[in-house]
Amino acid sequence: VPDSQYGLYAWPSAVVLAQYVWAHRRSLPGRRVLEIGAGVSLPGVVAARCGAQVTLSDSEELPRCLQSCRRSCLCNRLTHVPVLGLTWGRVSPELLSLAPVDIILGSDVFFDPKDFEDILTTIYFLLEKNPHAQFWTTYQVRSADWSIEALLCKWNLRSIHVPLHSFGADKEHLASSSLPGRHTIEMMIISLAQSEGT
């Protein structure tokens, strides 16, 4: 992708996360969903089409990505879906005034290691405000040296690995798309770690 704004492309991880959202569609009506780093917003759009109350977000510093979110909503006749500029690691008025959430979505947000802590700082902030919420995230394995394990411990977060075969996403072609292809995609659900005594 020649454009530095990676959110202008539907990455394979987005297709896999959208498949997970679709597999859980019966639990979504009325649930409050926030997609971070939404870009073309495939998982968030699927959640909205399944009846969730969705808010899409991308960096306030990437107006083309925010416009991409809006365009995806228009193409899917989702005129009621708000689009917010939320920058990872930054406590902004938009972040502080965000309505409660049940599910946070993020596909391929763990793309650049320099952003990992900012992402998890934002996720921790959201989960502290919404202790029963979960962060559903997919990512493409790009380097065996990249890990968020130490950061999860630092921010008192835990992760559960979700096998792709458990929701039919272990195929080379998925939802009539060859995007997942031979890419190594992983999925995990991140939540607050339980403190001792609770």
Summarize the topology.
Elements: H1 12-23, E1 32-35, H2 42-49, E2 53-58, H3 63-75, E3 83-85, H4 93-96, E4 103-107, H5 116-129, E5 134-140, H6 149-154, E6 157-161, E7 185-192
Parallel strand pairs: 1-2, 1-4, 2-3, 4-5
Antiparallel strand pairs: 5-7, 6-7
Helix pairs in contact: 1-2
CATH superfamily: Vaccinia Virus protein VP39
Give the overall average pLDDT.
Answer: 86
Indicate the radius of gyration in whole angstroms: 16 Å
Proportion of helical residues: 25-40%
Extract low-pLDDT stretches. 1-5
- How many separate domains? 1
Beginning-to-end CA distance, first to last residue: 46 Å
Strand content: 15-25%
Number of helices: 6
Instruction: Report the CATH C-level class.
Output: Alpha Beta
CATH fold description: Rossmann fold
SSE order: HEHEHEHEHEHEE
Number of strands: 7
The assigned CATH architecture is 3-Layer(aba) Sandwich
For the biggest sheet, the summary is: 7 strands, mixed
Specify the overall morphology: globular
Q: Please identify the structural class as seen in this structure.
A: alpha/beta
Q: How are strands sequenced across the largest beta sheet?
A: 3-2-1-4-5-7-6
